[in-house]
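Lab notebook page, bench 4
Experiment: in silico fold of construct C2
Operator: M.H.
Input chain length: 457 residues
Purpose: comparison with the prior construct
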Amino acid sequence: MILQFVDRRDEMQTLERLLARGKAALVLLYGRRRVGKTRLIQEFLRDKRGLYLYVPNSEEKTILAELSRAVEDEFFEGFRFADFASFMEYIAKKSASNDAIVIDEFQRLTNINGAISMLQRYWDERLSKGKCLLILSGSSFGAIRRVALSGDAPLYGRRTLSLKIEPLKYLDLFEWFKKYSPEELVSIYGSFGGTPAYLELVDENLSLEENIVDKILSKRSPLHDEPEMLLMEEVRMPQRYMDMLSAIAQGKITLSEISDAVGLSRENATTYLKTLENLDLIERVIPVTETEARRGLYRIRDPFFSFWFSFVRPNKRQLELGLEKNVWQNIKEDFNTYLGRIFEDICIEVIAEMARKGLLPLQVGKIGKWWWKETEIDIVGIKGEKALAIESKWKELTYQEAKKLLSQLNIKASQIPKVKEFNLGIMAKKIEDKEKIRGEGFIALDLQDIEKICKPD
């Protein structure tokens, strides 16, 4: 297992700036479980006077016992808080001498009657008048929404900052893995996604196939049932949600297709899909040229979940029989096709990074997919009446193949509404004579170029 800490610079800098103000601040730090919140907190507290407290998923007595053990050394062996009020009194006093106080999985305080309201009151009356940075960290999106994010939540309006921790992106993997090639990293990202706890399971001394078979497909692997476990923590009827995710993974991406596949009315399906959106497991994508989501298509956000619902769940019976190697042989070809969709997302990520670094011929304001009826363009960047139009192909392209694709792209790009001028491009595994193509006025990027782009500023 490789323990890494990458691409959390913006989050760290944000917390450091907030602390440097010398004023009390309440930060809501949240994200899906295993995304790296606790590791970020540990790194932030490393050189500070900080207090870290973890709330177990249990009833009041056990929670108070755990919180007491964390501070036992300050008092005496066997010290216990009598109630939550005495704990909050301790926090209020510690805030006078500490730079930061962290309560991890704070949403579980709802297991103690009145705890969140008391936390709100202590913040209003005492903590907000000091200098301490109070970080409330949590991973259950539903519970966090109820106590902090919705308009009627007890902590709503009191937070100084909300910091959502996202999974890592493909470009971040170059900093994490040193032995794998850019092409191999596409396969790693397409199967393990960007959740740090999943990536830590990857063994660079094993082949890509061995990692996928041993760490995901095998019924003994820690990731074999991960999506189901996560849904069981968040929703009451996980099977219904799993059916919907399976439908999306199988290419049912419109509301009608999904509702038909799971046997629900459009109205009921919309409710379930909205919950999956709130959990950050899916997103509704609209053409980049539109501002209203009238033609939205659903997609699974996380590559690991996309892989799991594409290849693990459909083969559960065989995997339970210990036939993971056989299953891998049967899905290898489909996996390569699946990577084509993953590569499209990576290409959008790369174009966004190039826009950030000022490396594009056009400084676009919006980047995304575009489609109309049967016409589709993988990546479109818009700025007024100008646009970038780029196709992505998960294959090695000859010069002639690349030029043919660009010719076809030219016809499609002319259909983008309100665009009078556009730059065309192609992205692929490898492109023959890419310098010649660039000399002809086109964008031409392959994995070799992507590796260079990912390097820090």
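Observations: The chain has a mean pLDDT of 91. Residues 60 and 112 are 5 Å apart (CA to CA).
Next step: discuss at group meeting.
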